[in-house]
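User: Hi! I'm working on a homework problem where we have to compare a predicted structure to a textbook description. Could you give me the structure for the chain below?
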Amino acid sequence: MQSPMSSSPAPLTAPIPPAHEPESPRPLRKGRRKIWWFLGVLVVIAAIAVGALWQQQVAVRRKAVGAGGVAVRTYTVRNGIVEKTLRLTGTTAAEHYVSLIAPQLRGSRSGYGRDYSSRRSGGSSTATVSADTSGSSSSSSSSSSASLSSPSGPSVSASSASDTGGGATSVTSSGVSRATNRSTSSRVSSGGQSGGSSGASSAVTQAASTGVDLGSTASLLPGGGGGGGGSSDFSLILQKLAPAGSFVKKGDVVAEFDRQFMLLRLDDYRDAVRQQQLDMINLRSSLEVSRTKRRQDLEAAKGQIEKAQLDLKTTPVRSEIDAERLRLALDQAEAQYKALMEQAKYADISEVAAIRKEELDNQKAELELKRAEANVDKMVARAAIDGLVVMQNIVRGTDYGQIQAGDQLAPGQFYMQIVDPRSMVVNATVNQVDAELLRIGQKARVRFDAYPDLELPAHVYSIGAMTKAGGMRATFFKEIPVKLRLDRLDPRVIPDLSVAVNVILDAEKAETAVAPLAGIFRDAPDAQPYVFVKTGESWERREVELGVVSYIEAAVRSGLRPGEVIALDRPEPQKPGQG
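Assistant: Happy to help. Predicted structure tokens:
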């Protein structure tokens, strides 16, 4: 029998790895050793410098420590000039400038008197002589008739017929024949786009058949008479404009408005005035013909009276019926002569009125011509002085910017300014409380926000007598306008630059000392001022006499000398045994 020990397998053992020899450390390179050595030296030097700086600050602080051990700020007294000033703010502007505004154009907006038809629409009176064929009559006996009518103004018509059958004549202050000859073509050419010549012809035919003067029927014709007019003639649209910031010479064109419609208006009124003068000549000729005709009618009526008187002398040899007829003929001739005499008086008055009306129409046309000529000149703006162009701003809907070509302006609107850069001034304001400190002629220094390194001398030129007008909201803060003139110019100075002005109210050259206000103390507002002067390791209180005092420093007339050190803070009193 086999034992259990002999039947169990032999135990497994892991193989032992071979032992490795430890690696020896690599020696440092010589270059790295030098770098570390150099960095160590730098650290030592920096530590020494920090320590020295700390020691220096401690020494300074110990010097500044007073008797109580509290640090006191100090100031070394110097000499110089102390100025008492008043600070103002404002903007630059030019004293010599020319403001340009949109012109106010004059003239009739309706276009009355612009051409012949529009003048006739106003009812201008004319006088013509025409043959009245509808009223002619012939008979063996003498007859006469007279009529006075006024279709569109004073009009006188007279007709007479002799026993020989003479034709009747009519004299009117605005005849149909003249309107038919001249006004027809004018109205047809200037009539409406629809119905043009046919409408004009029908209107003329109707007027001629009814005996109505065409001068009073312009509203019946298409188009309502010729001529333009309206607001388009007087619109102010900028066509040309000098660039903003450019320099212009006196007489240069700086702005021009669109003059197309105004030039057409000018041509129309020139033609209207020329036609009006011809109409006046024609009217005078027609009236002279009518006067001659009236004289002839009166002579003919007088001849009828003489003939009737001679016929009446034959009554002894005539029958009673013939005698009565001759007496009636004499009465009729005398009545006709009397009627013609009465009509002649009113005809003369009508002629004078017609001439006067034509003269007034002529004067009105000439006035409109002069206005049109003036408007044409106004629509071209020229520089009145040599200067710089400064453009104004305008609102275009929601946009706000400088005025430019193409903008439409309103009459009287300010759109440009030409400034003389050699006359720059400063417009500032001063509080009403400080206004009493200012005097005309006081010197000042002006500094510009746009150029911090620029400072120019100036002086007070004028002081306002009243405060500036307040805005929409009530305020108790009132300011008075002040103007300062620059004593020295600079090409960089242009209008509308914001500036700060220091007006010198008083100045003193301190021969002894100048001390800051922080180092001058008072026990009471009206008490004697004094300072603390450094003497060794202690502070000496010393009374001083002050001169001119500004906002930050004061001139010390006595009590201090340049070079002495004063305290800017009140030092604590020394304890017994210190010092």
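For your comparison, note the following. The chain is about 30% helix and 25% strand. The radius of gyration is 56 Å. Good luck with the assignment!
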